[in-house]
Amino acid sequence: MAKIKNDLTGKTFGKLTVTGLSRRDKWGAPIWSCICECGKEVESRTKGLQKMRAPSCGCSPSFINDLTGKVFGDLTVLKLSHKASNGTLFWECSCTCGGSKKERSYRLTTGKTTNCGCHTRRRLELGDQVFGNLLVKKFVGFNKRCGAVWECVCQCGKGEQPEIIYSTSADLRKGVIRGCRLCRGDRWVEAAGTHGFSQQERFQITRFRLWRSIQNRAKRTGIPFTITPDDIVVPDKCPLLGVPFEETKENPGPNSPSLDKIIPSLGYIPGNVWVVSKRANWIKSDATLEELKMITANLEKKIDEIEQIKEAS
Predict the structure, then answer these.
(1) Which of 34, 43, 87, 160 could form a disulfide with 16 if both were Cys (CB 3.0 to 4.6 A apart)?
(2) Residue 268 DSSP symbol
(3) Can you give the pLDDT at residue 202?
(4) CA distance 54 to 12
(5) pTM of the predicted structure, to 2 decimals
(6) CATH topology for 194-290?
(7) What are the structural domain ranges in the chain?
(8) Given this model, what pLDDT does residue 77 score?
(9) Under 8 Å CB-to-CB from 310, ≥6 apart: which residues?
(10) d(C-alpha 257, C-alpha 117), whole Å
(11) Is the separation of the CB atoms in 99 and 146 below 8 Å?
(12) Which residues of the chain have pLDDT under 50?
């Protein structure tokens, strides 16, 4: 047998002690016979021993470079999270901000990762800035997604006391939240006024809100959209169910107005839209007239059968 350049016989790696050369693979690389501290014999390649990919026979989950309990910047290693298919170790860490992060060993040991990302998210300080009617007062902490949460006070003056709102930096900068529940309706009043609506007109806010929301939805889904706010007429009652419409500034209810396509395949074009109640729109959905007639006929037939069974019994 040819002389081995790097003889590992007698050396110890983790819990494995090399007892000798076992064989060579088809490329001629040595495979070593090792004995574990538990007494079990295993085989391992040179790289597997030197890089500690096989620190034991499998009897112990410990690693020679165990990072559990160690601190790297704001991160404290809690436990081993998982091992990737290429042998990379991922550790579950907790951050001083309350967040958590799974990170690779080398990024922790080399100092490339020292926090869960909270430093970057908090870099933009929003204290004392105004977004809409909201005045940012102080930084609160981080949510489950490690987003920075700020305590804000609404300055609309409509309530007896200023309402406190908690919002993330992203929602404040994007304008998702601009005020409390009492003043959110002012956004539609202001926007509707720029499109020629009179604030004295009944349902004028609803009419603009329906047009704007459907316009955005049609743009995302590719549905034909050529109507203008003038094509939307809001009656006093739902033309399908006959219930009076109810306007709410909060989440729409079953009797709230909603814009519906009379023939769904044509899209939102003039003459093909009308305003019905939310519940009627849910029932109708995208069904055709024939499908609705079939549902009604079959439902009436089934009810008659049940009534006949009850009378017979």
Answers:
(1) 34
(2) B
(3) 45
(4) 12
(5) 0.37
(6) Herpes Virus-1 (3.30.40)
(7) 1-63, 71-116, 120-184, 194-290
(8) 92
(9) none
(10) 44
(11) yes
(12) 1, 62-63, 198-202
